[in-house]
Amino acid sequence: MSSNPKDREKEIAALESLKYIKDGMKVGLGTGSTAAHMVKGLGRLVANGLQVVGVPSSDATETLAIEVGIPLTTLDKAKRLDVTIDGADEFDGNFQLIKGGGGALLREKILAYNTDINIIIADAAKQVERLGKFKLPVETIQFATTSISKILEEMSLSPILRMKADQPYTTDEGNFILDIDIFDVDDLTTLNTKLISIPGVVETGLFLDTTSIVIVGQGETTKTLKK
Ligand SMILES: O=C[C@H](O)[C@H](O)[C@H](O)COP(=O)(O)O
Fold first, then answer.
1. Is the pLDDT of residue 68 over 90?
2. How far apart are CA 151 and CA 147, in angstroms?
3. Neighbour count for residue 194 (Cβ, 10 Å)
4. Ligand 1 centre from 33 Cα, in Å?
5. 124 with 74, same domain?
6. Which residues of 22-56 are buried (b: 16+ CB within 10 A; e: fewer)?
7. Do 60 and 40 have their domain in common?
8. Does residue 170 lie within any of the structural domains?
9. Is residue 84 part of a domain?
10. Are residues 30 and 107 both part of a single domain?
11. Cα separation, 211 vs 209, whole angstroms
12. Spatial CA neighbour of 137 closest among 111, 112, 164, 102
Protein backbone atom coordinates (compact mmCIF):
# COMPACT_ATOMS: atom_id res chain seq x y z
CA MET A 1 0.00 0.00 0.00
CA SER A 2 1.43 3.36 -1.05
CA SER A 3 2.20 5.92 1.68
CA ASN A 4 2.25 8.91 -0.71
CA PRO A 5 -1.31 10.39 -0.79
CA LYS A 6 -1.38 11.07 -4.55
CA ASP A 7 0.09 7.66 -5.34
CA ARG A 8 -2.41 6.07 -2.97
CA GLU A 9 -5.25 7.69 -4.97
CA LYS A 10 -3.76 6.19 -8.14
CA GLU A 11 -3.52 2.82 -6.41
CA ILE A 12 -7.11 2.71 -5.16
CA ALA A 13 -8.46 3.82 -8.55
CA ALA A 14 -6.40 1.04 -10.14
CA LEU A 15 -7.65 -1.58 -7.70
CA GLU A 16 -11.27 -0.51 -8.28
CA SER A 17 -10.81 -0.89 -12.06
CA LEU A 18 -9.84 -4.56 -11.66
CA LYS A 19 -13.51 -5.31 -10.91
CA TYR A 20 -14.23 -4.84 -14.61
CA ILE A 21 -11.88 -7.64 -15.64
CA LYS A 22 -13.56 -11.04 -15.93
CA ASP A 23 -12.34 -14.54 -16.72
CA GLY A 24 -11.45 -15.02 -20.37
CA MET A 25 -11.08 -11.34 -21.22
CA LYS A 26 -8.50 -9.77 -23.50
CA VAL A 27 -7.18 -6.75 -21.62
CA GLY A 28 -5.32 -3.68 -22.87
CA LEU A 29 -2.65 -2.68 -20.36
CA GLY A 30 -2.00 1.07 -20.11
CA THR A 31 1.24 2.85 -19.34
CA GLY A 32 2.41 5.11 -16.51
CA SER A 33 2.49 5.16 -12.73
CA THR A 34 -1.29 4.68 -12.32
CA ALA A 35 -1.53 1.89 -14.88
CA ALA A 36 1.44 0.19 -13.19
CA HIS A 37 -0.69 -0.25 -10.04
CA MET A 38 -3.37 -1.90 -12.18
CA VAL A 39 -0.84 -4.22 -13.86
CA LYS A 40 0.55 -5.29 -10.47
CA GLY A 41 -2.99 -5.87 -9.13
CA LEU A 42 -3.91 -7.88 -12.22
CA GLY A 43 -0.76 -9.95 -11.72
CA ARG A 44 -2.02 -10.86 -8.24
CA LEU A 45 -5.43 -11.88 -9.67
CA VAL A 46 -3.74 -14.01 -12.32
CA ALA A 47 -1.63 -15.69 -9.61
CA ASN A 48 -4.95 -16.53 -7.88
CA GLY A 49 -6.36 -18.18 -10.99
CA LEU A 50 -7.94 -15.42 -13.13
CA GLN A 51 -7.50 -16.32 -16.80
CA VAL A 52 -6.85 -13.33 -19.04
CA VAL A 53 -4.44 -12.26 -21.75
CA GLY A 54 -2.96 -8.77 -21.84
CA VAL A 55 -1.79 -6.53 -24.65
CA PRO A 56 0.73 -3.98 -23.35
CA SER A 57 0.76 -0.37 -24.60
CA SER A 58 4.50 0.13 -24.15
CA ASP A 59 7.78 -1.68 -23.72
CA ALA A 60 7.81 -0.61 -20.04
CA THR A 61 4.38 -2.12 -19.41
CA GLU A 62 5.36 -5.28 -21.26
CA THR A 63 8.37 -5.69 -18.96
CA LEU A 64 6.24 -5.13 -15.83
CA ALA A 65 3.46 -7.47 -17.03
CA ILE A 66 5.99 -10.25 -17.65
CA GLU A 67 7.50 -9.63 -14.20
CA VAL A 68 4.12 -10.03 -12.48
CA GLY A 69 3.11 -13.06 -14.54
CA ILE A 70 0.35 -11.76 -16.85
CA PRO A 71 0.14 -13.87 -20.03
CA LEU A 72 0.59 -11.57 -23.03
CA THR A 73 -0.46 -11.57 -26.64
CA THR A 74 -0.28 -9.11 -29.52
CA LEU A 75 -3.01 -6.89 -30.92
CA ASP A 76 -2.69 -8.83 -34.18
CA LYS A 77 -3.58 -12.09 -32.43
CA ALA A 78 -6.18 -10.63 -30.06
CA LYS A 79 -7.84 -8.63 -32.88
CA ARG A 80 -10.21 -6.85 -30.48
CA LEU A 81 -9.90 -6.20 -26.74
CA ASP A 82 -12.70 -6.45 -24.18
CA VAL A 83 -11.38 -3.76 -21.88
CA THR A 84 -8.38 -1.42 -21.70
CA ILE A 85 -7.39 0.25 -18.45
CA ASP A 86 -5.06 3.22 -18.68
CA GLY A 87 -4.07 6.43 -16.94
CA ALA A 88 -4.36 10.03 -18.16
CA ASP A 89 -2.54 13.30 -17.66
CA GLU A 90 -5.82 15.28 -17.63
CA PHE A 91 -9.51 14.54 -18.12
CA ASP A 92 -12.47 16.91 -18.32
CA GLY A 93 -16.21 16.67 -17.69
CA ASN A 94 -16.81 15.40 -21.24
CA PHE A 95 -14.46 12.41 -20.81
CA GLN A 96 -11.90 14.08 -23.07
CA LEU A 97 -8.27 13.35 -22.20
CA ILE A 98 -4.72 14.46 -22.63
CA LYS A 99 -2.40 11.46 -22.58
CA GLY A 100 1.21 10.80 -23.49
CA GLY A 101 3.10 12.35 -20.59
CA GLY A 102 5.04 9.08 -20.49
CA GLY A 103 5.41 8.99 -24.27
CA ALA A 104 3.13 6.00 -24.92
CA LEU A 105 0.27 7.88 -26.64
CA LEU A 106 0.53 6.14 -30.01
CA ARG A 107 0.19 2.54 -28.90
CA GLU A 108 -2.28 3.65 -26.21
CA LYS A 109 -4.53 5.26 -28.81
CA ILE A 110 -4.31 2.21 -31.06
CA LEU A 111 -5.37 -0.04 -28.16
CA ALA A 112 -8.19 2.35 -27.18
CA TYR A 113 -9.48 2.35 -30.76
CA ASN A 114 -9.57 -1.45 -30.79
CA THR A 115 -11.24 -1.90 -27.39
CA ASP A 116 -14.91 -2.31 -26.41
CA ILE A 117 -14.71 -0.57 -23.01
CA ASN A 118 -11.98 1.97 -22.21
CA ILE A 119 -11.51 2.75 -18.53
CA ILE A 120 -9.36 5.62 -17.30
CA ILE A 121 -7.92 5.52 -13.79
CA ALA A 122 -6.58 8.68 -12.16
CA ASP A 123 -5.84 10.57 -8.98
CA ALA A 124 -8.17 13.48 -8.24
CA ALA A 125 -5.69 16.15 -9.45
CA LYS A 126 -6.07 14.92 -13.04
CA GLN A 127 -9.66 16.23 -13.27
CA VAL A 128 -9.77 19.67 -14.90
CA GLU A 129 -12.41 22.16 -16.03
CA ARG A 130 -10.55 22.76 -19.27
CA LEU A 131 -7.83 20.65 -20.89
CA GLY A 132 -4.45 22.19 -21.53
CA LYS A 133 -2.52 23.07 -18.39
CA PHE A 134 -0.69 19.85 -19.24
CA LYS A 135 1.09 20.31 -22.56
CA LEU A 136 -0.32 18.17 -25.37
CA PRO A 137 2.16 15.61 -26.74
CA VAL A 138 2.32 15.35 -30.53
CA GLU A 139 4.28 12.36 -31.84
CA THR A 140 6.27 13.13 -34.99
CA ILE A 141 8.45 11.27 -37.48
CA GLN A 142 12.06 12.29 -36.75
CA PHE A 143 12.68 13.42 -40.36
CA ALA A 144 9.79 15.90 -40.23
CA THR A 145 10.06 17.17 -36.67
CA THR A 146 11.83 20.49 -37.36
CA SER A 147 9.43 21.42 -40.16
CA ILE A 148 6.40 20.41 -38.05
CA SER A 149 7.74 22.48 -35.17
CA LYS A 150 7.84 25.56 -37.43
CA ILE A 151 4.22 24.99 -38.49
CA LEU A 152 3.09 24.58 -34.87
CA GLU A 153 4.98 27.77 -33.98
CA GLU A 154 3.03 29.60 -36.72
CA MET A 155 -0.19 28.20 -35.20
CA SER A 156 0.83 29.83 -31.84
CA LEU A 157 1.03 26.43 -30.14
CA SER A 158 4.56 26.98 -28.70
CA PRO A 159 6.03 23.55 -29.50
CA ILE A 160 8.85 22.23 -27.33
CA LEU A 161 10.88 19.22 -28.42
CA ARG A 162 10.78 16.70 -25.57
CA MET A 163 14.29 15.85 -24.35
CA LYS A 164 15.78 13.05 -22.29
CA ALA A 165 19.14 14.02 -20.81
CA ASP A 166 20.64 16.01 -23.71
CA GLN A 167 19.05 13.98 -26.52
CA PRO A 168 15.56 14.21 -28.05
CA TYR A 169 13.23 11.77 -26.29
CA THR A 170 12.45 8.80 -28.56
CA THR A 171 9.19 6.85 -28.31
CA ASP A 172 8.87 3.05 -28.42
CA GLU A 173 8.10 3.48 -32.14
CA GLY A 174 11.28 5.52 -32.73
CA ASN A 175 9.57 8.90 -33.10
CA PHE A 176 10.04 12.30 -31.43
CA ILE A 177 7.51 14.26 -29.34
CA LEU A 178 6.64 17.95 -29.56
CA ASP A 179 4.75 19.19 -26.47
CA ILE A 180 2.38 22.02 -27.37
CA ASP A 181 0.27 24.56 -25.53
CA ILE A 182 -3.46 24.14 -26.28
CA PHE A 183 -4.93 25.85 -23.23
CA ASP A 184 -6.48 28.71 -25.29
CA VAL A 185 -7.92 26.43 -27.97
CA ASP A 186 -11.73 26.06 -27.78
CA ASP A 187 -12.39 23.58 -30.60
CA LEU A 188 -10.23 20.56 -29.82
CA THR A 189 -11.78 18.35 -32.51
CA THR A 190 -10.81 20.81 -35.25
CA LEU A 191 -7.37 21.27 -33.73
CA ASN A 192 -6.82 17.51 -33.64
CA THR A 193 -7.88 17.15 -37.28
CA LYS A 194 -5.48 19.95 -38.30
CA LEU A 195 -2.60 18.40 -36.37
CA ILE A 196 -3.14 14.92 -37.77
CA SER A 197 -3.27 16.30 -41.32
CA ILE A 198 0.30 17.68 -41.13
CA PRO A 199 2.58 15.21 -42.95
CA GLY A 200 4.88 13.58 -40.42
CA VAL A 201 2.54 13.94 -37.45
CA VAL A 202 1.89 10.38 -36.36
CA GLU A 203 -0.59 10.92 -33.52
CA THR A 204 -1.61 13.33 -30.77
CA GLY A 205 -2.31 12.73 -27.10
CA LEU A 206 -5.87 14.09 -27.43
CA PHE A 207 -8.31 11.25 -26.70
CA LEU A 208 -11.63 12.92 -27.43
CA ASP A 209 -14.18 10.12 -27.66
CA THR A 210 -12.66 6.83 -26.58
CA THR A 211 -13.41 6.75 -22.86
CA SER A 212 -16.68 5.64 -21.27
CA ILE A 213 -15.63 5.14 -17.64
CA VAL A 214 -13.32 7.21 -15.43
CA ILE A 215 -12.39 5.95 -11.98
CA VAL A 216 -10.95 8.65 -9.74
CA GLY A 217 -9.15 8.06 -6.46
CA GLN A 218 -10.11 10.66 -3.87
CA GLY A 219 -8.50 10.31 -0.49
CA GLU A 220 -9.31 6.75 0.58
CA THR A 221 -12.35 6.30 -1.71
CA THR A 222 -13.05 6.16 -5.41
CA LYS A 223 -15.73 7.75 -7.56
CA THR A 224 -16.73 6.17 -10.84
CA LEU A 225 -17.90 8.46 -13.64
CA LYS A 226 -19.80 6.87 -16.53
CA LYS A 227 -20.67 8.39 -19.88
O1 LIG B 1 2.27 8.08 -22.03
C2 LIG B 1 1.83 7.85 -20.92
C3 LIG B 1 0.41 7.68 -20.61
O4 LIG B 1 -0.48 8.36 -21.43
C5 LIG B 1 0.05 7.78 -19.14
O6 LIG B 1 -1.11 7.03 -18.97
C7 LIG B 1 -0.17 9.19 -18.64
O8 LIG B 1 0.98 9.98 -18.91
C9 LIG B 1 -0.49 9.22 -17.13
O10 LIG B 1 0.62 8.76 -16.43
P11 LIG B 1 0.61 8.65 -14.85
O12 LIG B 1 -0.38 7.62 -14.47
O13 LIG B 1 2.03 8.27 -14.50
O14 LIG B 1 0.27 10.01 -14.32
1. yes
2. 7
3. 14
4. 7
5. yes
6. eeebbbbbbbbbbbbbbbbbbbeebeeebebbbbb
7. yes
8. yes
9. yes
10. yes
11. 6
12. 102
Q: At 161, is the secondary structure helix, strand, or coil?
A: strand
Residues 62, 108, 139, 203: which is the catalytic one? 108
ipTM of the complex, rounded to two decimals: 0.99
Number of compact structural domains in the chain: 2
CA 122 to chain centroid: 11
SS3 101: coil
**What is the distance between the alpha carbons of residues 112 and 87, in angstroms, rounded to a whole number?**
12
- As to burial, measured by CB atoms within 10 angstroms (0-12 exposed, 13-18 middle, 19+ buried), residue 197 is exposed
Q: Does residue 189 sit in helix, strand or coil?
A: helix
Closest residue to atom 10 of ligand 1, CA basis = 32
Together in a domain, 86 and 33: yes
Q: Give me the pLDDT at residue 2, please.
A: 85
The number of beta carbons lying within 10 Å of the beta carbon of residue 200 is 17
| pTM given for the model | 0.97
Distance from the CA of 30 to the center of ligand 1, in angstroms?
8
Residue 224, in any domain of the structure:
no
